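Shipment paperwork, digital attachment
Item: protein structure file
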Amino acid sequence: MKKCLIQRIEWLYMITKEEIYKKAFEEKKKALKEKNARRDMMLAAAYSAQPRFRDIDRELSSIGAKAAIEALSGGNVTELKRRSEALANEKKALLDKYGVKDIEYDCSVCNDTGYVNGKICGCVKKLASFLITEELSHEMPIGRSRFDNFDLKYYPDKDGADGNPRRRMTAVLKACREYALKFDPANSPNLLFMGNTGLGKTHLTLAVAAEIIDKGFIPVYGAAENLFSLIEKEKFSGENRGAYDAMIKSDLLIIDDLGAEMATSFTKSALYNLINTRLLSGRPTIINTNLTMKEIEARYTARISSRLIGNFEAYKFIGADIRQQKALEKIGK
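Attachment content:
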């Protein structure tokens, strides 16, 4: 699964909150335009088939002008109103006869405009969440990596050198659920998931991402190797413009598989800048790694490890490789 993520994550720099909301508004605008066009086509066909529509429209227009004059002169418009209502009812009956219905809006709150009293309607936020989930699902198993299918049966309920895997991972799962439930891009803490490969770090990280997307937040998720590659190409060749900015400003930055990339002076600098800049701006970051803290300090720098120790809540994943366990289950079948 990690290899798949590494190969396919290059699209991520394009995913920003502004762009996903712009896409959501464009989709709503397009859908509303299509609904109006369908009704206009049916209305035109009805007018073509029934001349009475135009007679009614002309009479209603005439009544409107007469009513305005009467109202200005203090005259009685009761009879004009009665006649206007009768014509309106006749027109509605004809429209029903020819199958011309009022537009059925997907959202009755904003009538598919996307705004309510100058504010973005909840339907747009819901659509934006759907779009970002759809984008992510093309590149990673976000639909298959949810809290509900994180199976604790693969973690032995017995004490070992690192503790009891079942109890440890039950606590980690609970912490991740609470993190997603209470997520706030201005106040949520940074998380550091550590442990050997195949223990569920990516699964729980994707589950967190899926939950906050459902709440309308936009994360940026990528393998460390690809994140650093995007930054390098943007800096030196002008490719992937906006990649670094998207990582810095996203509601949540998720760096997966830290340590799998080739360690160079540039990657060390890029990692430090990402971590430090987001710390200074108060934006949360989640990092997954197979490395221990000593290995992180040896591989990168003391500046990086000190920030991880001092500013990240660390969770150590323990147990046996779940992918291997599932593979053995299939063989056994």
